[in-house]
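ok so for the tutorial part 2 we go from a plain amino acid sequence to predicted structure tokens. step 1 is just haveing the sequence, like this:
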Amino acid sequence: MTANQISVTVHATDQLSRAGLISHLRQSGVRVLDEAVTPSDPAPLSGPVAVVVGDRLDELTLAELRRLVRGGKREVVLIAAQLREPELITVLESGVRAILWRHQATPERLARTVRAAARGESALPADLLGQVLSTLGRGQRHPGGSVSASALRLAPREVDVLGLIADGLETRQIAEKLAYSERTIKNVLHGLMTRTQLRNRAHAVAYALREGYL
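step 2 — the prediction. this is what the tokens look like for a chain of 214 residues:
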């Protein structure tokens, strides 16, 4: 999927931030819907990706994230100035799979994160992935508690795919590297996350790292 095939809605209470973000997106060829969207609007516009700007995860921003994720009809990218560990976990549990630091939101990185979100892939800064690992390490050894040990064991092909995700490769690149179709890669990941009750790709990579597979 190319950038200009993706429709994006931008959600920010600060109109100056919204204008700057729209400019960044358009520089990268991303199609931004013209209508102004803020957390006070009664209903989200249709579109595959919603980009939310919030310096901190306050109640208003969190409510907006949950509203946009609800129903599973769109992917959400959060651009934040900072996130404390409890806030990070709250964001991930709300269903947001892509996060970008505000100071790193160049047009190129923003477009790359939006494309990843549009494909349903996770995109987290490296330091946030470290926080996820740390948090999982202090939590229960196996997610959900009711999943059997055999279900949590990873197959060699699953480990190969997760290793390449950890290296930053996209689905198409992983498929080329392993000589599989993109559909096969997506099926491997879907089967893995369904079986192990892992939430998303970042969670799966973190689990594989913590368990010593990577």
